[in-house]
């Protein structure tokens, strides 16, 4: 055709035209507003094929410049219009229509792998503790220590008996050791090396002088408080494997000595499930004691748990 406009595609607005031709399709005028007269634009190859009619044939313009009766199959919005539409939808609070996944759905919960939490029972009666330390020690495994929101499961203990060269009772009754000679079921807390608070459960009857040292525990509840008191942001066994760590996690001081562990409130020993297996071995750090007592297998631990202090290679099944 002469001096007419041939529309290559409606989708990409690509065309070949005479600039000085007057045409009712003002869609193309802004594109050539700055070009000099008598200048022809180059053909821009579209990314998509020309629009087709229902029969699959490409539609075209008539010689008068009017389109044929067959319109394009669909009309595509420009990226700018899409952006404006999305902005309006967001402004109106229709986050779902705007396609914003951050506003339409909450992030999936993070799944954490944790150990099974044992059921928390009642405080144990006083009679539970009024037995020989060698009998009480394995019975304390699996029981729970509670102070405020912190609950610990006892995983490792050591027994200290009368006439034991490693027991504090060997010095007789002093201001420091007097709680060891108290009634069974009371706490005995002493300071070790001027740093660590060591929690013991007094065993047997009043005046005997025997106790069970709590060497290790596993956390049941109050983990954030435990971590804060320990000054360690970890969930690994290093958090509670050692008697000084247990005392620190419970926030104990020597003022807790003589406290009854069978009464509600304060520091309590609660009932808990018995372990399936028990390990035994010699006690730790008592080289000053007689050879007989150094080698005595009076250390007890729950079999199969990582919440046991070092050394572990001296333990064997009971």
TrEMBL record:
Signal peptide: none annotated. It catalyses: Hydrolysis of alkylated DNA, releasing 3-methyladenine, 3-methylguanine, 7-methylguanine and 7-methyladenine. It comes from the Eukaryota. Belongs to the DNA glycosylase MPG family. Hydrolysis of the deoxyribose N-glycosidic bond to excise 3-methyladenine, and 7-methylguanine from the damaged DNA polymer formed by alkylation lesions. Its EC number is 3.2.2.21. Residues 73-89 have a biased composition (Basic residues). This is DNA-3-methyladenine glycosylase II. GO terms for molecular function: alkylbase DNA N-glycosylase activity. GO terms for biological process: DNA repair. It is an enzyme of class 3 (hydrolase). It comes from Urochloa decumbens. The lineage of its organism: Eukaryota, Viridiplantae, Streptophyta, Embryophyta, Tracheophyta. Residues 37-110 are annotated as: Disordered.
């Amino acid at each position: 055709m002469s001096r007419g406009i041939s529309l290559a595609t409606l989708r990409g607005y690509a065309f070949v035209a005479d600039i000085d031709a007057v045409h009712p399709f003002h869609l193309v005028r802004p594109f050539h507003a700055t070009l000099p007269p008598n200048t022809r634009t180059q053909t821009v190859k579209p990314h998509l094929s020309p629009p087709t009619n229902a029969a699959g044939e490409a539609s075209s313009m008539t010689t008068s410049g009017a389109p044929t009766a067959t319109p394009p199959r669909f009309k595509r919005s420009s990226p700018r219009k899409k952006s404006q539409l999305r902005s309006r939808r967001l402004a109106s609070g229709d986050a779902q229509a705007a396609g914003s996944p951050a506003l339409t759905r909450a992030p999936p919960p993070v799944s954490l792998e944790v150990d099974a939490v044992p059921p928390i029972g009642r405080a144990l009666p006083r009679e539970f503790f009024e037995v020989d330390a060698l009998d009480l020690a394995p019975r304390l495994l699996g029981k729970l220590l509670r102070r405020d929101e912190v609950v610990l499961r006892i995983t490792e203990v050591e027994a200290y008996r009368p006439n034991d060269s490693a027991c504090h009772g060997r010095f007789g009754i002093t201001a420091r050791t007097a709680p060891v000679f108290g009634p069974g079921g009371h706490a005995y807390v002493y300071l070790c090396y001027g740093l660590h608070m060591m929690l013991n459960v007094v065993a047997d009857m009043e005046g005997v002088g025997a106790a069970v040292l709590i060497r290790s525990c596993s956390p049941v509840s109050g983990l954030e408080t435990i971590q804060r008191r320990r000054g360690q942001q970890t969930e690994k066994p290093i958090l509670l494997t050692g008697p000084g760590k247990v005392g620190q996690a419970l926030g104990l001081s020597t003022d807790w000595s003589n406290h009854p562990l069978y009464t509600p409130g304060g520091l309590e020993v609660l009932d808990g499930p018995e372990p399936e297996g028990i390990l035994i071995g010699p006690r730790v750090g008592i080289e000053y004691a007689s050879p007989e007592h150094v080698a005595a297998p009076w250390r007890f631990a729950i079999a199969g748990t990582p919440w046991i202090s070092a050394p572990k290679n001296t333990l064997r099944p009971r």
